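ARCHIVE CARD
Drawer: 12
Card no.: 0347
Subject: one protein chain, sequence and derived structure
Cross-reference: see card 0346
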Amino acid sequence: MKKAQRVGFSFSGLFGRGGAPAATRGWSTEPPTEFELGRMLTALDDRFTALRAFDVFGELDADFLVVGPGGLFLITTRVQGNAKVWVDEDVLWVNGRPTNQVRDARNAADRASARLSAVLGQPVRATPVIAVMNPLSLSFGGDPARRVVTLPADLVTQWLSECSRTLSDDAVADFAAVAEDRATWGSLPSGSRRLARVR
């Protein structure tokens, strides 16, 4: 495996969409869970809707669907505490071992895109995002434009906030309403017809 640059806490130039956060901070000393990421997403401002996707995307391990000015983002959390993580266009490696996490994230985003496009009657693309929990290191190789966005969990909220605008306020509201409706996902259990909001 070709050695990639150790990025540490600096993400300048690594992401093909939206750029990097203007400022970054160190990773937490204890690995958070997807529930901790949900708590972090509550810091998003009123332009965003963050939905818990555990139920409808359970088989594909997607945790949150976020709708905001920068588009739609399907976020999966991966607990890799104290592990060396390396990412290229197609594979996320953990301590030198390949995983299916990039493939799974893309599959989940493709499924979400297809469902949303069918209901809205127009092409919609959900961007896959992998939030890595407390990695020892996070390094990258290959073409940034072809990689799935992968970053430490504690930088997800800031990165979402700094993505370039691609949707109008009206489009954000329309997309969020459709995404929140369980019928969009073919999931109609007893109880609420809406996905739970974390923001």
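Annotation on reverse: The two ends are 40 Å apart (CA to CA). The CA atoms of residues 49 and 171 lie 12 Å apart.
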